[in-house]
TrEMBL record:
Keywords: Cell membrane, Membrane, Transmembrane, Transmembrane helix, Transport. The chain crosses the membrane at residues 33-50, 57-79, 85-104. GO terms for biological process: xenobiotic detoxification by transmembrane export across the plasma membrane. One of its GO terms (cellular component) is plasma membrane. This is Guanidinium exporter. The lineage of its organism: Bacteria, Pseudomonadati, Pseudomonadota, Alphaproteobacteria, Sphingomonadales. It comes from Allosphingosinicella deserti. Belongs to the drug/metabolite transporter (DMT) superfamily. Small multidrug resistance (SMR) (TC 2.A.7.1) family. Gdx/SugE subfamily.
Length: 105
């Protein structure tokens, strides 16, 4: 169950990061409210997952899901560049997430 909560927390991190970009510096109310709600939910689920997962593993996976997910959203929906170096960097983050999961048992 902790891994499920952690994955949902990571997905919510993608939501709040994307909404924050769309909030235009918190000058747009709707995206600003989505940012705040998703951020609170993401932190709350991360805290619940940390009850049984090691700190280093939980935090690394949470931030990794958010980083790679926000990177993908930026490319697919926001027109950001998908250069080979950026794709390699995202691949390395994913590799690190897999190794963290495998090391957690």
């Amino acid at each position: 169950m902790a891994w499920f909560l952690l994955i949902v927390a990571g997905l919510l991190e993608i939501v709040w990061a994307s909404a924050m970009k769309l909030s235009d510096g918190f000058s747009r109310l709707g995206p600003s409210l989505v940012t705040a709600a998703a951020m609170l939910a993401s932190f709350g689920l991360l805290a619940l997952a940390m009850r049984s997962l090691p700190l280093g593993t939980a935090y690394t996976v949470w931030t990794g899901i958010g980083a790679v997910g926000a990177f993908a959203v930026g490319i697919v929906w926001m027109g950001e560049a998908a250069s080979p170096m950026r794709l390699l960097a995202a691949g390395l983050i994913i590799s690190g997430l897999v190794l963290m999961k495998l090391s957690a048992g």
